[in-house]
């Protein structure tokens, strides 16, 4: 039945392709990218009396795309010649870096040069704000002003707060998306959803670690407009960007940007007022910024100034951290600690999310060993490696010392899965297992979160060192467990020692001479 549905899904996708309907203002030009000609799609508004109008280029968000910014663009087009590049056009090319912010800024620069635009205002929404910042830095002499609309900002306030952790999570989602795209009967729905491979690749290649240094180099007047309850980019991001840019102006509105409040007249009115000030040379530049703002911009990041997550955003982060424990318990706990250090996630919720994720995951490892492990031992090659007598002796030893080993294993990376799996495999008491396991994560989780809060970002470097040797640590752990079962346990009984002596004598007779 499933194969039939999958076949029908592919038939529908091939036979009835979704037509790409051009937008109302859509146009295209051919530009040079990576030594070849490519079509660059954009949307152009306010072409009436174009020569008498200043040009405003708005870069859309990678997720909400062109549709989200269109209401503002239509209102601004009454006074300005507005151009909105299609983000997919900014990802054209064949090089591996085409999904980076820097590559998009380079292609935008070529597009502007192709249109022979000398001076222009630049705006960016969400992810597009980072592209706008990069482009403004590349063309300081041509970009008259910069407008950040619900823009992303510093690394600490984005997603799980760390570049490597965010990249890892997006990388892990990529194979699942491919699996959904090719092996699930979605009947073409994948091609209509916003969370797709292009989005994931853009976010995987997003590096915000230099954002602080970059925005401090801006000379142009900067306007930051943000929704107070933006579910995609928290208001704290806009406030930190405002602090870092001494010549910036911050305006935030009540409501949720994701509920299409970008079409509210106040957004376009505030942008119009700002652009009027820039055009009439009344806007503040870096040279005319106040000493107080300049000093404030030089201060280090202070997590105490950041408002902790609440409501839906808090629930989403908790669920994400719980899910992340599936791939790496250590990385999930460190991510939670970094979010706490950044003031985004309260310590209690950081510990709670990690604790619940680990509890659910590792309890299932025990049951996996109990339900799957025993039948597997009766099959080749496992039955050659571990005999029934060995298993019985291991069960006896586990009853005596296994729970202590479970507690210690929590603090030894690479030893947790084999120990928990072995607990189920050897049919140890679940109640006893759960008590020792519960105590171990109750001690380990707040301890590691607390250490991460104190140490901060260097914890990732320590984890990277561990990951370099993780395979060998795991291999060594498996070897130790095998030696304990095959040598250590038999050595505890007279009969076992005799059997080992006989085996050693036979081995020596065969190979020792």
UniProtKB/TrEMBL annotation:
Residues 72-151 form the AB hydrolase-1 domain. One of its GO terms (cellular component) is plasma membrane. InterPro entries: AB_hydrolase_1, AB_hydrolase_fold, DedA-like, VTT_dom. The keyword Acetylation does not apply. Keywords: Cell membrane, Membrane, Transmembrane, Transmembrane helix. The chain crosses the membrane at residues 309-327, 334-361, 405-426, 433-457, 469-489. Residues 337-451 form the VTT domain. It comes from the Bacteria. It is found in: Cell membrane. It is a multi-pass membrane protein. SUPFAM superfamilies: alpha/beta-Hydrolases (SSF53474). It holds the Pfam family VTT_dom. Its main location: membrane. PANTHER family: INNER MEMBRANE PROTEIN DEDA-RELATED, INNER MEMBRANE PROTEIN YABI. Belongs to the DedA family. This is Uncharacterized protein.
């Amino acid at each position: 039945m499933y194969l039939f549905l999958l076949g029908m899904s592919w038939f529908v996708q091939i036979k009835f392709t979704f037509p790409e309907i051009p937008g109302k203002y859509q146009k295209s030009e051919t530009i040079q990218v990576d030594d070849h000609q490519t079509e660059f799609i954009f949307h152009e508004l306010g072409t009436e009396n174009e020569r008498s109008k200043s040009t405003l280029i708005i870069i859309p968000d990678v997720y909400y795309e062109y549709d989200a910014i269109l209401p503002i663009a239509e209102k601004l087009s009454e006074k300005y010649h507005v151009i909105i590049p299609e983000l997919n056009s900014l990802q054209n090319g064949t090089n591996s870096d085409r999904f980076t912010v820097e590559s998009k800024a380079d292609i935008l620069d070529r597009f502007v040069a192709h249109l022979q635009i000398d001076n222009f205002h630049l705006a960016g929404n969400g992810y597009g704000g980072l592209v706008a910042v990069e482009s403004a830095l590349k063309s300081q002499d041509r970009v008259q002003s910069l407008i950040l609309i619900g823009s992303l900002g510093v690394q600490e306030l984005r997603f799980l707060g760390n570049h490597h952790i965010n990249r890892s999570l997006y990388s892990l989602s990529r194979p699942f998306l491919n699996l959904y795209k090719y092996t699930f009967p979605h009947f073409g729905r994948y091609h209509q959803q916003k969370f797709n491979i292009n989005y994931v690749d853009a976010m995987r290649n997003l590096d915000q670690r230099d954002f602080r240094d970059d925005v401090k180099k801006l000379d142009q007047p900067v306007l930051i407009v943000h929704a107070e309850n933006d579910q995609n980019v928290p208001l704290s991001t806009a406030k930190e960007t405002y602090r870092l840019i001494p010549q910036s102006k911050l305006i935030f509105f009540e409501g949720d940007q994701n509920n299409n409040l970008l079409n509210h007249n106040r957004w376009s009115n505030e942008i119009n007022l700002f652009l009027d000030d820039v055009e009439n040379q009344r806007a503040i530049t870096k040279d005319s910024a106040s000493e107080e703002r300049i000093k404030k911009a030089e201060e280090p990041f202070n997590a105490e100034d950041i408002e902790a997550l609440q409501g839906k955003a808090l629930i989403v982060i908790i669920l994400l951290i719980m899910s992340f424990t599936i791939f790496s318990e250590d990385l999930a706990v460190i991510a939670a600690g970094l979010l706490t250090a950044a003031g985004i996630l309260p310590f209690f919720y950081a510990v709670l999310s990690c604790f619940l994720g680990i509890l659910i995951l590792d309890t299932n490892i025990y049951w996996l060993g109990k339900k799957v492990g025993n039948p597997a031992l009766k099959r080749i090659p496992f039955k050659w490696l571990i005999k029934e007598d060995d298993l019985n002796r291991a069960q006896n030893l586990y009853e005596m010392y296994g729970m202590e080993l479970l507690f210690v294993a929590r603090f030894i990376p690479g030893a947790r899965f084999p120990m928990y799996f072995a607990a189920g495999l050897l049919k140890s008491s679940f109640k006893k297992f759960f008590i020792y396991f519960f105590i171990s994560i109750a001690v380990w989780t707040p301890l590691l979160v607390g250490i991460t809060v104190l140490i901060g970002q260097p914890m990732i470097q320590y984890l990277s060192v561990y990951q370099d040797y993780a395979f060998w640590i795991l291999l060594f752990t498996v070897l130790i467990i095998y030696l304990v079962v095959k040598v250590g346990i038999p050595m505890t009984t007279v009969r076992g020692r005799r059997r080992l002596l006989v085996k050693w004598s036979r081995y020596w007779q065969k190979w020792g001479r």
